[in-house]
Write a structure and sequence with these properties.
By secondary structure, this protein is an all-alpha fold. It contains 3 helices and no strands. It holds the Pfam family LysC.
Length: about 90
């Protein structure tokens, strides 16, 4: 009886085979993805200095301003180094 069904209805047979293939395609091996994190060199991650102001005169304020500007430049160089490191590693990866 089943043999007659397959012979009389090739469209139904084709649909059943297609569904069987779709069902079996779920039996493939699972692909695992491993995430590897890249961190910038430790030298680029040192905390920036923040000198507290303890002056009392306008001259002290000018000296403090020079110190703060130097600290800002050092920090900006660290940020630039991190950005450069990221662009180099992005191109390699």
């Amino acid at each position: 009886m089943l043999k007659r069904f397959w012979l009389k209805s090739p469209v139904a047979a084709l649909i059943c085979l297609t569904l069987l293939l779709i069902a079996l395609s779920g039996c493939t091996n699972k692909i695992t993805t491993k995430t590897e994190y890249l961190y910038p060199p430790q030298a680029y991650l040192t905390p920036c200095e923040r000198t507290a102001f303890n002056g009392k005169t306008y001259g002290d304020a000018i000296n403090y301003l020079l110190i703060v500007m130097n600290e800002r430049d050092v920090c900006a160089k660290q940020v630039d180094a991190i950005r450069e490191w990221q662009s180099v590693n992005r191109k390699q990866g």
